[in-house]
Amino acid sequence: MADEVTAALLIIGNEILSGRTQDINLNYIALGLNQAGVRLKEARVVADDEAAIIAAVRALSAAYDYVFTTGGIGPTHDDITAECVAKAFGVPLRRDQRAVERLLKQIKAEDLNEARLRMANIPEGAELIDNPVSHAPGFRIGNVHVMAGVPRIMQAMFDGVKPTLKGGLPVVSASVVILAPEGLVATRLAAIQARAPDTEIGSYPFARQGRFGCTIVTRGTDAGRVATVAAEVAVMARELGAEVEEEGLQAP
Amino acid sequence: MADEVTAALLIIGNEILSGRTQDINLNYIALGLNQAGVRLKEARVVADDEAAIIAAVRALSAAYDYVFTTGGIGPTHDDITAECVAKAFGVPLRRDQRAVERLLKQIKAEDLNEARLRMANIPEGAELIDNPVSHAPGFRIGNVHVMAGVPRIMQAMFDGVKPTLKGGLPVVSASVVILAPEGLVATRLAAIQARAPDTEIGSYPFARQGRFGCTIVTRGTDAGRVATVAAEVAVMARELGAEVEEEGLQAP
């Protein structure tokens, strides 16, 4: 697709990989990026491990227009994201006075111990990202946006960043729900996809009351084309004798 | 940690990256691997894109003891996992008669069209993975286990594979819930971690009825050490005046 602006997400945290915590940040960021006209192309989850974080930041920063990270920016010993991002960019990590001032909005001066001050250690040259929930900021350096892992805080940070993103053409989608197994429609669906390379057609199977069905989602940047292709899918499925529910255009 | 057996998960599907679908497979696999004594070290989510899938399969297969993939093994044009895995291993993809026989358990012979038969295309040399839900099999080639994306089917496949995994020492954990912000305990927590490199201590902040707290999770393969370190954490937090709830040893 033309004018595609891309992003990757790096989720940092042992708690996701151990199964202790179910990630819900990917889904929130994916939907928000769609609204901004940015395509999330890849996500990675890595442990609180310096080498793994640095390697992932470098690889994703080089491959995509935007990178977002979640997790690892608190005050404890396992919060190592800021120093890893500094190393990935080859810049020093330094105590940032702007960040200290923000911490003082939440924490009394006498309680601002060395551990809490770690949350004000920011790579040189980074811009702060607002945290309207608990004030400890995130930051942006190059194309990498470093955010908290706690969903409520991450969401507030991301909502602040979103208007600053320069997206491409927004993507719209149209869904056709077919009450028949996808194997029935797969061959003709492939033919429709082959004739419509400017759209992306996905088939997502489901079971409803013991019967198999599939939702066919057509996505693209030209709303007229998406609607046309989705209508073609619905006609095709009805010709094959399947019951069909159509849904209109949606963003994304 | 000694005797560590590692794994990575590759989640394949545009629907996760578009935000249409919330992934729940990572969490299920993470918990199951823990039970098998295998540590999930990394997860990646990639789109239905040949180059991206092949590159990820190769990178993860080389870096970890086990790799699991979810998604992309259905009958439609966007299901390209099997051919990508074959290419990643440099082997041909061929129509597998054992897989055809399994499809015939679910699908009448006259309905077994070319699209559905794609689900019987398996890389040469692979072993089939049972699908007790809808019969279309997954497969294992080398250290890569290829499974369905639909959670109910993935879970049934993974439950069948799990007893075949050769895990290391099982990991146990102990949690200490501290009803105080993690910044209060962070400095002394880091000192405890430094003295206990055979355990891994994580701090996970939460808010409960407007008050900040944190759960400190100690993990390791020596149950006695884990219990000792967790007890030390609880003593430390009480010395700092925090209210503490202790939880016993858990697997993982």
Describe this structure in words.
2 copies of one chain form a homodimer. Chain A folds into 2 domains: 5-164, Molybdenum Cofactor Biosythetic Enzyme, Chain A; 172-250, Ribosomal protein S10 (Alpha-Beta Plaits), CATH 3.30.70. Chain A is of the alpha/beta class. Chain A has a 6-stranded mixed sheet with strand order 2-1-3-8-7-6, with helices on both faces. In chain A, strands 10-11-9-12 form a 4-stranded antiparallel sheet. In chain A, β10 (200-208) and β11 (211-220) form a beta hairpin. Chain A is 37% helix and 29% strand. The first copy, chain A, has 9 helices and 12 strands. Chains A and B meet through α1, α2, β2, α6 and α8 of A and α1, α2, β2, α6 and α8 of B.
From the alpha carbons, calculate the radius of gyration of chain A and give it in angstroms. 22 Å
Q: Would you identify the CATH architecture of the largest domain in chain A?
A: 3-Layer(aba) Sandwich
Please state the structural category of chain A. Answer: alpha/beta
Estimated share of beta-strand residues of chain A: 25-35%
Determine the N-to-C terminus distance of chain A. Answer: 15 Å
| Order of strands across the main sheet of chain A | 2-1-3-8-7-6
pLDDT under 50 segments of chain A (min length 5)? none
- Strand segment count of chain A: 12
For the record, what CATH class of the largest domain in chain A applies?
Alpha Beta
The ordered string of helix (H) and strand (E) elements of chain A is EHHEHEHEHHEEEEHEHEEHE
**What's the CATH H-level homologous superfamily of the largest domain in chain A?**
MoaB/Mog-like domain
Principal-axes geometry of chain A comes out as: elongated
Query: How helical, in percent, are the residues of chain A?
Result: 25-40%
Task: Please give the count of helices of chain A.
Answer: 9
Largest interface: A-B, 67 and 67 residues
Oligomer: homodimer
Q: How many domain modules of chain A?
A: 2
The major beta sheet of chain A can be summarized as:
6 strands, mixed
CATH topology group of the largest domain in chain A: Molybdenum Cofactor Biosythetic Enzyme, Chain A
